[in-house]
Amino acid sequence: MRSKQSGFTLVEIAIVLVIIGLLLGGVLKGQELINSAKIKNLVNDMNGVSTAVYAYQDRFKSLPGDDPNAATRWASAAGVTFPAAAATLGDTKVTGAFDSATAGVESVAFWDELRLAGFLGGATGQTVAQPTNAVGGIMGVQSDVGIQTVGVTAGHPGLAVCTTNLLGRVAEALDNQLDDGKPNAGAVKAWVQGAVGTTTLVQASNTPTITATSATATTYVDDGNTMYTVCKKIN
Predict the structure, then answer these.
(1) 24, CA 20 to 30 Å: which among 46, 134, 196, 216?
(2) In-domain check, residue 2
(3) pLDDT tens-digit profile of 139-167?
(4) pLDDT of 114 strictly over 60
(5) Can you give the CATH number for the domain in which 173 is found?
(6) What's the predicted TM-score (pTM) here?
(7) pLDDT at 98
(8) β-strands 227-233, 159-167: how paired?
(9) In the chain, how many domains are there?
(10) Is residue 137 part of a domain?
């Protein structure tokens, strides 16, 4: 007598495939929602910094970090290192790199002064005062970011807020929401995080500092690896 072989019917296989499809769709949709939430967070943070800067200027008639009266105004602030009185204070520029970790540099004091004024939340007197963004990078400010040595051929004249560690799809979506989606034009510009003056990614060392020899990216590359630093002009 031949034994009867058991197996799946076409209906059962179809049901399994439908379930797998639903699960995959749910995972992909969930990832899309997570990315959308991160982008919204990045947009709100950058716009929030711009609003805080305008409010500080309206109240104190100076840029935070560049305010020559900040040390006197908040003389009792524990642990805060204000920039030393020098020619750069009050010159309407926030000197220092946006990712500087040196206490007393204007781009670091910027965050303490906004927090002391009540325009931003967070603890004051930190060695590294820049806030962390939604993707694990930092957010910082810098004047004349990416300006070439001769002429304004790239970058932002004036003050800009920068955010780091953005993958291509996130950087492009952020640029589209804030500006024109072009990394080398408009009020939002982007640089590939890597060695200064190159487009080589140095993700392990995480060195996003932009200097006068760093060229803006020409396109956003969504390869799941290349990271960008995106800067939005404030004034």
Answers:
(1) 134
(2) no
(3) 999 888 765 433 334 566 789 999 988 99
(4) yes
(5) 3.30.1690
(6) 0.78
(7) 86
(8) antiparallel
(9) 1
(10) yes
Output phi, psi for 208, to 5 deg: -90, 5
Q: How far apart are the first and last CA of the chain?
A: 89
How high is the pLDDT of residue 215?
A: 64
pLDDT at position 171 is 95
DSSP 3-state assignment of 198?
A: coil
What residues form DSSP beta bridges with 166?
228
Residue 135 lies in a domain: yes
User: Would you say residue 179 lies in a domain?
Assistant: yes
**Per residue in 124-138, pLDDT tens?**
887 667 899 999 888
pLDDT in tens, 55-113: 999 999 999 999 999 999 999 888 899 998 777 899 999 988 888 888 889 999 999 99
Give me the domain span that covers residue 212.
11-233
* Phi, psi of 201, deg, nearest 5: -75, 130
Strands 188-192 and 227-233: antiparallel
Mean pLDDT calculated for residue range 174-202: 74
**Per-residue tokens: 58:** 């309206």
C-alpha–C-alpha distance, residues 209 and 202, integer Å: 12
Q: How many CB atoms are located within 10 Å of the residue 139 CB?
A: 21
**Distance in angstroms (rounded) separating the CA atoms of residues 195 and 183:** 18
The structure tokens listed for 60 are 């104190």
Sign of the CA dihedral running 127, 128, 130, 131:
negative
Tokens coding 141:
């400010």
Q: What angle do CA 217, 153, 198 make, to 5 degrees?
A: 35
Cα separation, 100 vs 98, in Å, equals: 6
Per-residue CA distances from 57 to 42, 92, 104, 110, 117 (Å) = 23, 10, 20, 12, 11
The distance from CA 142 to its chain's CA centroid, rounded to whole angstroms, is: 12
